[in-house]
Amino acid sequence: MKLKSLLAAGLTLAMLAGCSSSTPAADDGAKEDEGSAAAEAKTYNVGVAIYQFNDNFMTLYRNEIESYFASKETDEVKYNVTIVDGKNDMAEQSNQIDSFITQGMDVIILNLVQTSSADSIIDKVVGAGIPLVLINREPLGDNGDESYTRILDNPTVCYVGADARQSGTYQGEIIAELADHGDINGDGKVSYVMIEGDPENVDAQYRTEYSIKALEDAGIEVECLDDQVGNWDQTKGQEIAANALTQYGDAVEVIFCNNDAMALGAAASITAANRTVGEDIYLVGVDALDECVEMVNKGTMTGTVLNDAKGQADTAVDVAIDLLNGKSIQNYYWVDYVKVVKE
């Protein structure tokens, strides 16, 4: 009898336990909902300021930034990337940086309109507690050492770019390595026209200086027929080249352009002047835009230098993500240029 009572009591408890299990089941569902909420992706807000959208190279660069951030997303991490056009206006870009700070961006990637404004922009962003990745235009500030020191003194500030001295050197070497070393008319010197980018930009300064230095270092005598500022613009490059070809005619043996956009303009003027690249004139640029690489292969452009937009953009994104994750970074990241000539 006692055994039956115990069995009955055990059965009753089991039934009660079975009935009461329905309540925890509901709780488990709530916990699952809470878990799902906790598992929602962390979203980082990224502000990207480009000096000017109307720039062939920076178009490649910013598109790569956007696509590479997208490739880095996971179920746990998302990147909300906002890219703005500075329209080559420093006041406009300063307002955009202020807006990024007000919006509380988690990191800012900045391609400066004016490198001389680097000091104040760095101070502003650092003061707001936002990590900063400067790209493409090496900041020099009012005094070159000041911006360099500001970057080195801030563990959440860095610069990603390529050493423009290398690109200028490669341009000069392309000409020096030709069979006639650029001296088409055989008068013992290379007579050239230089079309510069923004004179404030260190890339323009170094490409202008080091392209000619490479020729001189190779023991080649040079003569500058004309040196004008084209501000990276294709139309301006075409205008400068046309004027130089009209003024100096066959004396022009080489046209150096600080970027490919201006080289494309110069190429149009060379054609209009009934000159032929590779026969009676040489033309070199920098950036290795697809169109220019094709021209190099066809022989309608002597050479260009790959300014690795993808490599720089990917490095900038990787560093920005490291900053978002609280990792230590270097203050300077350099991506090599590559010489591009017809095989």
Number of helices: 12
Can you give the mean pLDDT? Answer: 89
Topology, number of strands = 12
Q: Segments where pLDDT lies below 50 for 5+ residues?
A: 1-26, 34-38
Shape: elongated
N-to-C span: 103 Å
- The total domain count is 2
- Profile the largest sheet: 6 strands, parallel
CATH architectural name of the largest domain: 3-Layer(aba) Sandwich
Could you please say which CATH topology of the largest domain applies here? Rossmann fold
Reading off the top of the CATH hierarchy, the class of the largest domain is best stated as Alpha Beta
Strand content: 15-25%
Describe the structure.
The chain is α/β, with parallel strands linked by helices and about 350 residues long. The protein folds into two domains: about 40-160 and about 310-335, Response regulator (Rossmann fold); about 165-305, Rossmann fold (3-Layer(aba) Sandwich). Helix content is about 50%, strand content about 20%. The protein contains twelve helices and twelve strands. The protein has helices at about 1-20, 20-40, 55-70, 90-105, 120-125, 145-150, 165-175, 200-215, 235-250, 260-270, 290-300, 310-325, and strands at about 40-50, 75-85, 105-110, 130-135, 155-160, 190-195, 220-230, 255, 280-285, 305, 330-335, 340. The strands form three sheets. Strands 2-1-3-4-5-11 form a six-stranded parallel β-sheet, with helices on both faces. A four-stranded parallel β-sheet has the order 7-6-8-9, with helices on both faces. Helix 3 links the parallel strand 1 and strand 2. The radius of gyration is 30 Å and the shape is elongated. The model is unreliable at about 1-25 and about 35-40 (pLDDT under 50).
